[in-house]
Write a structure and sequence with these properties.
34% strand; eight-stranded mixed beta sheet; globular; six-stranded parallel beta sheet; Transferase; mainly beta; Hexapep; UDP N-Acetylglucosamine Acyltransferase, domain 1
């Protein structure tokens, strides 16, 4: 029977241990909290300090950096990148290859399309069609 974790060395020479999430087999670092009902697809990397709520769906190839928060029922499409400290609200949808900057906030229910860039610290809210709402 194969092991249920993998060790990876980071750029500073430290070894980080990632376990395979029971629902999807994505890699979750020690220190991250992922609800058992969340789906973390294979090829996704969840870094230490990340919190992923119930019902969230993390696509393949997604990278979520330390201390980001993913709300309940949020959907992160394949190959998106959620930078450190970002927060994605309840039921928000993040498109394919979209980058959410460090400490950015995406309001619950927002729809962020494919190949978008949300800047560091930016706060974004959209309607169900993806049109940005006034701040």
């Amino acid at each position: 029977m194969g092991k249920n974790y993998i060790d990876i060395e980071d750029d500073q020479g430290q070894t980080l241990r990632y376990r395979k999430h029971v629902n999807g087999r994505g890699l979750v670092a020690n220190g991250a909290k992922v609800h058992s009902s969340a789906l973390v697809e294979a090829g996704a990397y969840i870094e230490p300090g990340v919190q992923i709520a119930a019902g969230a769906h993390i696509g393949r190839g997604v990278w979520i950096e330390p201390d980001a928060v993913i709300g309940p029922d949020a959907e992160i499409a394949p190959h998106a990148h959620i930078r450190s400290g970002a927060a994605i609200g309840r039921g928000a949808k993040i498109g394919v290859r979209t980058v959410v900057g460090a400490h950015a906030r995406v309001a619950g229910g927002s729809l962020i399309g494919d190949d978008q860039q949300i800047g560091d610290g930016e706060q974004v809210a959209t309607d169900r069609r993806g049109l940005r709402l006034a701040a």
